[in-house]
Amino acid sequence: MVRRVKSALRAGLTAGSLAVLVAGCASILPGGDTASTLYGLKAPSDYATLMTANGWQLMVEEPVAERALDTDRIAVYTGPHALQYFTGARWTDRAPRMLQDLIVETFEHAGLQMSASRQAVSVRPNVSLVSDLRDFEARVTPAGEGAATAEVVVRLSAKVIWLDGRKVLDGRTFEARQSAGSDNVADVVSAMNLATQKVVRDVVTWAAETSNQAVPAS
Prior knowledge:
218 residues, 2 helices, 9 strands, elongated, ABC_trans_aux
């Protein structure tokens, strides 16, 4: 669903509560820090049927990311080694924090018998989901006779850790690619939303199943 969010938005809305797109476009050429339109991603709304141990607590840690991706700027490769950012457009939060929020939200809405949180507060978690955000960008193919095209890539390397003894139960890398209609920021964000939803859905399904099958009985 398309929805516009002005940069004046300061009400503390989460990335998952915001719509994906706005009308218009943004340039990828370098520019100053002008007023930006904020773009958010939505958590997936469809989930696999999963069985998990009742009462288990899972802590979702914020993904680690290199400096180029640990930002609220929307990254785009315009060549093999040329990383730039869309001007006049930003994510609602840093990319790793957005992914963390979307994973937690998906766990919360999936109807699982285990709960997920961003950090342990008063409840001691049984398992922890740690991850490394490897890719979260668009890759633009220069225009030949026609318009330039873009593909977004989301890649997350994750581990499920049993916290008693810090035992790694399983590790896996999740990747999704999605073609964008153009290198327009609205098309890129729309494609990024689809790719991110696939990765988040797969991570939640895998983490729940791994915890259920591999965590020792208490």
